[in-house]
Amino acid sequence: TVRCVRQILKYEMVTRPLLVTASALVAVAGADHPPGFFVELNDGHMMPTVSLGTCCGSTPQAGLISWLAAGGVGVDSSIDYRDQPEIGQLLHENKIPRNSVYITSKVTAGCGKNLSDCGLDPGVVLASINESLTQFGVDFIDLMLLHRPCQQFSQQCSIDPKLSNCTGPNPIPNPTASNNALWAGMATAQKMGLVKSIGVSNYNSDELAALKGPVPAVNQCEMSIQGYDNITIDYCQKNGIVYESYGAMRGCPFTDPQISAIATNHNVSTAQVCLRWVVQRGAVLASGTGNDPTKAAQYAKENLGIFGFNLTVPEMQILNNMQL
């Protein structure tokens, strides 16, 4: 088991850099986006339906600029991934306009190692956000999440497709109180203009219901054809919280003949079927494009190409019955 893992490790690791000129992005930045490319959050801000995940098998150096050049807008990172300075440098070096990128990041919270990460001081959140702003080299972040609830502090969380099961002792005296203290810091950061939208990650329905203050705009959780939490998905959709998937490729049964047949029916890849299923379940998603720059551009086009087809009701029923 590992902690705070976000993406499937299915891509070959290489170190060769990928160079794409900024002009390639500028050419597509003003292009019309297909229906469904953005969703509206409960605070009125718009969020891209598909973001580039930059953790655990997907590096910014290999895929960020090709992602933007392909028309991608969303970039999902975290202070815990330790890649924010790299993202900021790539954006700066390639002269990427700030308003052409939607940046998601996360405050450590329940992913932390220090008790102060899940303490009762909202100032910990403000300090973390300011550090992220410095690392990115920007003056605001579009979406900031609490990475994990304090109920999961110091625990070991599995990453198999059948959802994250966290086990082990938790030294936090009152995790709910800690979650609310951190959430108060998030609300303050939003009022200060440091972040546009605020949300959480890996929260279940009970943990969401216990939060006091503004309703989270987003809850980012593991969600794939082979593993998802219907109770929390339903709670979010009933309460105006956008549910965001990570790990959709980890739980994608690429070789299943039923998946292959559906992909053939629509002339798309099996990966695109798995991603499209997420969207038609009413969620948005963050998915990586790997560590190989020779493949990242193609993966980016596939991830962004899921708006050109719709799965039928019978196909959705087949996919809904594949959970492990």
Helical content, roughly? 25-40%
Instruction: Tell me the number of strands.
Output: 12
Strand order of the largest sheet: 3-4-5-6-9-10-11-12
Could you say which overall geometry the principal axes of the C-alpha atoms support?
globular
- Number of helical regions: 11
Structural class designation: alpha/beta
Alpha-carbon Rg, integer: 19 Å
Identify low-pLDDT runs: 5-30
Compose a concise summary of this entry.
With 324 residues, the protein is an alpha/beta fold. It is 35% helix and 15% strand. Strand 10, helix 7 and strand 11 (242-246) form a beta-alpha-beta unit.
Tell me what you see in this structure:
There is one protein chain. The protein is α/β, with parallel strands linked by helices. Helix content is 35%, strand content 15%. It has helices at 22-29, 60-69, 84-93, 123-136, 175-191, 205-209, 230-238, 257-266, 270-280, 293-304, 313-320; strands at residues 38-40, 46-48, 50-53, 74-76, 102-107, 141-146, 156-157, 166-167, 195-201, 218-222, 242-246, 284-287. An eight-stranded parallel beta barrel has the order 3-4-5-6-9-10-11-12, surrounded by six helices. The chain has a two-stranded antiparallel ribbon with strand order 1-2. Helix 2 (60-69) packs across helix 10 and helix 8 (257-266) crosses helix 9. 50% of the residues are buried.
